[in-house]
Amino acid sequence: MAVIRNEVFSCFVFYAVLLVVKMYTIAIITGQVRLRKKAFANPEDALRHGGLQFHREDPYVERCRRAHINDMENILPFLFIGAIYSLTGPSLTVARIHFLIFFLCRVLHSFAYLFALRAPTRSLAYTFAQIPCVSMAVQVLMAVAAYA
Amino acid sequence: MAVIRNEVFSCFVFYAVLLVVKMYTIAIITGQVRLRKKAFANPEDALRHGGLQFHREDPYVERCRRAHINDMENILPFLFIGAIYSLTGPSLTVARIHFLIFFLCRVLHSFAYLFALRAPTRSLAYTFAQIPCVSMAVQVLMAVAAYA
Amino acid sequence: MAVIRNEVFSCFVFYAVLLVVKMYTIAIITGQVRLRKKAFANPEDALRHGGLQFHREDPYVERCRRAHINDMENILPFLFIGAIYSLTGPSLTVARIHFLIFFLCRVLHSFAYLFALRAPTRSLAYTFAQIPCVSMAVQVLMAVAAYA
């Protein structure tokens, strides 16, 4: 990076941006499933694709939506906590382990959601992804608690 | 800015904060529509505004909700990717084009959603807004790939 | 903090991370309510916990979901606006008041939502939490308007 020359921060950015791209991918998949299943959330979209009868819900579209919303609930806070944590001066090795666990578990979470893998695969992926997040949150809180 | 004196970053912040204000506006519109249509998501709100029969869904409230959730799916990741991209040292002109395309397309997206403009206006606004995001994501990934 | 030695920013980070932990807590509560009420959003989860008849909605689970989504709509933009505002060089006292009002109102909002407190407690908590956000947005916009 031109401005920020910080190895931990750059490592964080790498996995964070990949996860954002993963979220974009789920949005694209949702759109494709809507077209294939002819299930549109808006009447104006249904009208363009055959008629108002396609203004309807579809179970697999709803599954994609849930996967996306769960990503927002977890990946978006990670974009914040991971960035702040990177600035607290952790060792690169320890930080990379945090980011990598979160990254791999969230990719597994998406696969488990979209392919409806047997429970509790998805829940375990969610839970293990939260461990580095809670760890980072605690470390950041300890670093700034004096400023509360 | 007092701390960060970076033209590209300041340019990004300008459009990013305007988009956050735009999201706040959709929340206010949703609340006003709920009051006018008497359609409340919570029984305690319905009770205060005439009775439990108003604890119900309304198609236009749901449309506002979808506009808001789509904003969260797209504008919130932009707040991250745009900030990081600004720190990779792009030219101000190129960066401003990225931010401006995203900003204008997301404003159009909100108009298309709230006024139910004919398809595919809203989808096109979404798609064109994603182009600068993917461009920024690729540039950031190339800048930090060595630190993965 | 090792890298960023900025009192206002550290104060912001303290409250911001606490609010992220608060959001994580709502996710955990939602999961526990799903288990207790046997109301699962996914058939694979229902199958693991007794059968497909538990693939169903529950009013209190939906209430938790709404609390969580409202947090995303408000706390996630705060993570951005608060960070940028901290970098514009405000006085520590004024900044802390902004963060503290937002923090306390959002905690009250969650209590009002989860315990279904009488209206308009929740709406007032939401509205008062937005005041420091709009104040910060205006101050940031004034600081960077020259770079638009």
Give an overview of the whole structure.
The structure is a homotrimer of 148-residue chains. Chain A contains five helices and no strands. In chain A, α1 (7-37) packs parallel to α4 and α4 runs antiparallel to α5 (121-144). In chain A, 42% of the residues are buried. Chain A has helices at 7-37, 43-48, 59-86, 92-114, 121-144. With 148 residues, the first copy, chain A, is an all-alpha fold. Chains A and C meet through α3 and α5 of A and α1, α2 and α3 of C.
Write the layout of secondary structure elements.
Three copies of one chain form a homotrimer.
Chain A: H1 7-37, H2 43-48, H3 59-86, H4 92-114, H5 121-144
Helix pairs in contact in A: 1-3, 1-4, 3-4, 3-5, 4-5
State the assembly state of the protein chains: homotrimer
Number of helices of chain A: 5
Percent in strands of chain A = under 5%
Structural class of chain A: mainly alpha
Q: Which ranges of chain A are low-confidence, i.e. pLDDT below 50, for 5 or more consecutive residues?
A: none
Helical percentage of chain A: over 70%
Shape category of chain A: elongated
Rounded to the nearest angstrom, the distance between the terminal CA atoms of chain A is: 31 Å
**Whole-number average pLDDT of chain A?**
95
Order of helices and strands of chain A: HHHHH
Task: Give me a quick take on this structure.
The structure is a homotrimer of 148-residue chains. By secondary structure, chain A is mainly alpha-helical.
